[in-house]
Structure formats: structure tokens, C-alpha cells
Amino acid sequence: MTGPDPITLGVIWGALQSIAVEIGTTVHKTAYSEQAREGQDFSVAVFDPAGRMVAQGPYSPGHMGAMSFAVKNALAAHPIETLRPGDAILLNDPLLGSGHFPDFFITQPAFHDGALIGFAVNILHHTDVGGQRPGSQGVVGIFDYFQEGLRIPPTKVWRAYEEDAAVVGIIAANTRTPDKVLGDLRAQRSALRVGELRLVELVERYGGDVVSGAMDEIIARTEASMRAAIREVPSGVYHFEDFLDDCGPGTDPLRVSVTVTVDGDRMTIDYAGSSPQTASGMNSYINYTRSYSYAAVKCLADPFGPMNEGALRPITVSAPAGSFLNPRPPAGGGPRAIICYRTFEAVLGALARALPERVAAASSHFANPTFGGWDRARNRRFVAYELVLSGTGARATKDGCEAMASAFNASNIPVEAQEANQPIVVERFELVRDSAGPGTFRGGCGIRRDMRFLADDGKLTNLSERQTFPPYGLFGGKPGILARTLINPGPDEEIVHGKASREFAYGDVISFQQSGAGGYGDPLARDPARVLDDVLDDYVGIDAARSDYGVVITGAGVDLRVDEAATQRLRGTLKLPDENSSKK
């Protein structure tokens, strides 16, 4: 079969991307939960009739990399010949999907004149699916995933557009927040119906053979583009090592050891040497480990090319069976999201020598706590999910950014959304001065978010990182400051471990103070004018300008200025760091 002409191919490619975005927009506008509606913790994609991803929406790469495997697993359980219009397959099995129960994958076929023409697929992180802790993401006390909530193997929850009330009833009975979970589940299903209709319209316009040929061509060209991009990376073997703080109070750090081998147009990422799987929730099933490894390579090698199955083919990701990056079932994995930054940044760290102009230093890391309790004002139980997204790592030519996701495309949940829907008052949401890693280009600043809870029987499941191992800098750049979590910050403050599960009282303030991101390059080479700008913007204090950057600032208020002569003398007395070193 001859492929479509270039103009038709371009139009179909644009249409497929548009369909993916429309599916995502429908989820975004109709979801019930704060994390989906405001934080955009969901993903969408369009697949061809063979179950290959063709186009994805601009959402989380952690979901996208796992989605191809989730669809293959759904179709293995429900072969294509058994599917009919209006069927939809739901799964959340950690091994078959993205590694934890809250992620519900739904795969819906699209038919035209009785012929299968593709699939619309989405995944959404649900607020609570039962288990030991509100939010289903506990770290401490988890020794298998049966403690983490409801496990759903690939199941036809919809047949001929009719919802299976029995299955949906079981889901509702196993969550603390049935209104949000069922609302989000139906938002997913409605969005896929939109995707199905748009795929049918596309085939009606161009014909099934033309659209199918375009899908084949798009995947083939994407693979060729990725292979060409990998060939531009110097061949070699690159190793890097970093650590997660621990898997709960009193436990050892978790080693992330990665070896990246570049061989012509192929890349192999191997996590041999990483820590064994844990008797906790801190494990990352292999699909999730693959996902953020793929994402790192995509960002470095071919960031502007399409993202579909073709982009994944030249990349092989492995981790030893029984390691915490490829655990054996039924290992826990509820809080596996906290691991994704470290796998993503380990690949970046490994390839820093090969691609110094493209990599970024380590980001601040995010906090992803969940809360539960009794909302006395609304006379109900509640579960609240939080994202505290902080600074991104510095790059070869630019400072890091503030208050942004690094390895995925989520957003800080707006203050107004939390306060309107939960017994929460956000008392502080601000940048942390002097938190960013110094460098020729500095890292993004840490974020502080203080939340007062007007709830009884409060339960916090903390999920935070970089409280022991700071975000690394590159090529002489310094690490950011460490993160911390406090209850009632001030004279009587109490430090909360980054993975702790604990109670809190009505009126308590929980303060998430995130680490600063790593810097890039020698701090003494930073333009003094930029240091002054950072002082004026309150990113950097006057004392830190002197000690970290060797910049002497005089004056007061808006009349601050750089003392050029004093700065030159001070920098001459300070020891220059090794420009080839990188802080791990």
C-alpha cells in the first residue's frame, strides 16, 4: 500500500494530535477531583488498530511510557476479535499499568463500518482506591500491594456503551471518596467517547486505508528521527549514581545506579546495581521505570519529534528482577511517583558528559502528600491530594525555573481550589530565599507551602524527597538546600520524616519546604548583574551573594548596587571549584 501524500500525511498527523488534546481537554473540564481538574494528573493517547501508540496529549510522560504496555496487556486479556463498539477495558494492576492502584487506564476501541480503526486511551490518577492510608500511597507498614487498595485486572466495565453497575459498585465500595472516583471514572469514559467519534470522523473523511497508512508512516518516521538523534550522541558507556533518602524512618538510602550505553542508533539503559525491592511502598514497577527513562532520552535526544511507539523502539530499559526499580509482585508501589525524578535525573546525570549542553542539573523534587480526616464544616470524610512543585535544575545557558514540574507536566494545585473544596487554608505559598543551587546559572528556588487543616481525626501520608541527599549540581554548580516538612513551624515546630504516616490535630499547620534545584557551572563565573537581579527579586540574600557568588552588594532598598572593585578582589581570594566535577 502506498503511503499518503505529504500534505494529507501532515493533515492526518495534526488531526491525531488534535484528537489526543480534545480527549485530554474533556477530562480536564469534566473531572471531579482537584488533582485531575487542577493538577492535570492524567494522560491521553490515540492508538492504531494494532495497539501501537500513534499520538499522545501533552501530559505526563510517566503515564505515556506505561500506556503502551497497559494497552498491550488489556488486549491480551480481551483480544481484538472479542471487542465491539462501545466496549471499554479498565485496569489498574501495578504490573500491567504504571505501577500503582490509583492509576486507572481505560482502553476504548473505535470502529467504522464494522472495522476496527484504532483506540482512544486515557489514564487518570484517582483520589483514593482504599488501602491502608487515605490516598492509597502509604510508604510505612506496607509489605505487599494487597494493603494498598483495590486491584482491577483488565475488565470490560462498559459493553456496548452500557456501564457494568456491579463492577462500578465494587469500585465505589472500596474508596473513601466514591463521588470523586466515580465522577473521574465517568469523565474518563466520556472523554474517550469524544476520541472515538473524532477517529470515526477522520476515517470518514480520508478513508480507512489512508488513515491506517498515515499511522504506519508516522510511527516509521518517528523511529527514524529518534535513531538519527541517538546517532548524534557520542557512542560510549556512561554511568551515574544517586540516592533516594530512604523508604521510611530508620531505613537505609535507596541506590539508583544506571549505566547508559550508546551504540550507533540504539541506547540501552540498565539499572543493575540499584537497591533491592523494599518491604514498603517504595518500589517502581518496570513499566514506570521505563517511562521516565524514555522521557529523559526523549528530552535530550529528540525533544521536538513526535512521541509514539516509534520513539521507544531504539531504547531498551532494564532493571534486575527483584530490585526496587523492577520488583516482583506483590511488592507495594503506591507512592512510586516519588521515585520518578530520580530515574529521570539519573539518566540525565549519566549523559551529562556526552551532552553537556543539553542536560539540566537535578531539580528540587516535589512533595506529593495526601491527607484524610473529618471535615466538620461539611459533615463528611475527606481525602485531599497535594502537589508541591518546586524549582527545576539549571542548564548550560539558563537558570532553572520556579514552581514547575520537571520530569512531568503537572501543575501546582491552585490555593483557591483546595480552600473551596477541602477543610484547608493555605497560609503561605512562596519561594524560599537562598534555596537554589549556586552556579554560573542557578537552579530554581524551592517552594514553601503551609497548609492549615480545619479537620478532626487528621491523617497525613507524607511523600517527599531530598531531605537527606540534595539535588546535585553539574560542572561546578552547587547543590540546592535540603527539603523538610514541619508541623506548626515556629518555636515548637516538629520535624516530620519525608515518608512518615502520622496524625495531626484540628488547626495544625503542615509546612512543606522543598529543596532548591542544582546549579550549573562555576558560581564565581555568574554575571554580577544577574546576582544583583536575584537579590532584588529576593531569590538570593546579600550575604549569600557574597559567600556563594563572590559578589559584594552595597546600598539599601532599591538603591542596591554591585561594588565592582570589591567583587573582583573577593572573587580573586575564593577558591575556584573543579570545573569538571559534578556534585552527586
List the helices and strands and how they pair.
Elements: H1 6-30, H2 34-37, E1 42-47, E2 53-56, H3 61-77, E3 88-91, E4 103-112, E5 115-125, E6 155-159, E7 162-163, H4 165-173, H5 178-206, H6 208-231, E8 236-244, E9 254-263, E10 266-270, H7 286-301, H8 309-312, E11 315-318, H9 337-350, E12 370-375, E13 380-385, H10 415-421, E14 424-431, E15 447-453, E16 456-461, E17 484-487, E18 494-496, E19 501-504, E20 509-513, H11 528-536, H12 542-549, E21 553-554, E22 561-562, H13 564-573
Helix pairs in contact: 1-5, 1-6, 3-7, 4-5, 5-6, 7-9
User: How many domains in all?
Assistant: 3
Give the strand line-up of the largest sheet. 2-1-5-4-3-6-7
Task: State the secondary-structure class.
Answer: alpha+beta
Query: In percent, how much strand structure appears in the residues?
Result: 15-25%
CA-atom Rg in angstroms: 24 Å
**Tally of DSSP helical segments:** 13
Give a short account of the largest sheet: 7 strands, antiparallel
Task: Kindly state the percentage of residues in helix.
Answer: 25-40%
DSSP E strands, number: 22
Average the pLDDT over all residues and give the rounded result. Answer: 95
Report, as a whole number of angstroms, the end-to-end distance: 52 Å
Key features?
7-stranded antiparallel β-sheet, 584 residues, 3 domains, 5-stranded antiparallel β-sheet, globular, alpha+beta
Summarize the structure in words.
This protein folds into three domains: 6-223, no CATH class; 360-521, no CATH class; 528-573, no CATH class. By secondary structure, the chain is an alpha+beta fold. The model is unreliable at 579-584 (pLDDT under 50). It has 13 helices and 22 strands. Helices cover 30% and strands 21% of the residues. It has a seven-stranded antiparallel β-sheet with strand order 2-1-5-4-3-6-7, with helices on both faces. The chain has a five-stranded antiparallel β-sheet with strand order 14-15-20-17-18. A four-stranded mixed β-sheet has the order 8-9-10-11.
